[in-house]
Write a structure and sequence with these properties.
Elements (H helix, E strand, L loop, with lengths): L3 E5 L5 H4 L3 H7 L3 E5 L6 H11 L6 E7 L4 H7 L5 E6 L7 H8 L8 E2 L5 H13 L3 H21 L16
Parallel strand pairs: 1-2, 1-3, 3-4, 4-5
Helix pairs in contact: 2-6, 3-4, 6-7
Length: 170
């Protein structure tokens, strides 16, 4: 049974969410993806949000561009945490989407990640799911340690530059 619900405003957002879902898969978190438009199929969005908790969903990620009404419409229909992913594009390259999500009216909270920030949205949803799951918390800690090791390993690429000594990081 999926724990994380992901709603895309349109099929054009598939490539954005595909940058984040590998994180959920690596952590062993089941998720589902729906396509529903806040403007063209608002009743589908509202029904998905209203039914999510009863279906075992613990957090919803809503991916949308331009006016990015989707996260707000979802947040208005549920008390589950909603994480908005603003999509780059349009006349001002996604800033309208970012501001639409970040500037929700009081009483209808929706979190926002950066433009095309699907990976962070999936990690935030995983952290929400881990709040009451020690096994998932351990997986997240291992994931974070792996990511830290990648950064430390990347210091080897400074071969033609004067690198800071190892003791600088201790």
């Amino acid at each position: 049974m999926p724990q994380i619900g992901i709603i895309l405003g349109s099929a054009s957002d598939i490539s954005v969410i595909e940058k984040g879902t590998p994180v959920l898969e690596e952590l062993g978190i089941e998720y589902e993806v729906a396509i529903a438009s806040a403007h063209r199929t608002p009743s589908d969005v509202e029904n998905y949000a209203k039914n999510a908790r009863a279906r075992g969903i613990t957090a919803i990620i809503a991916v949308a561009g331009l006016s990015a009404a989707l996260p707000g419409v979802v947040a208005a229909a549920t008390t589950l945490p909603v994480i908005g992913v603003p999509v780059k594009g349009g006349a001002i390259d996604g800033m309208d989407a970012l501001l639409s999500i970040a500037q929700m009216p009081p009483g209808v909270p929706a979190a926002s990640v950066g433009l095309n920030g699907a990976k962070n949205a999936c990690l935030m949803a995983a952290r929400i799911a881990a709040a009451t799951n020690d096994k998932l918390t351990a997986k997240l800690e291992a994931y974070s340690a792996k990511e830290a090791a990648k950064v430390r390993d990347s210091r080897k690429k400074l071969e033609n530059l004067p690198a800071a000594p190892a003791e600088a990081y201790r």
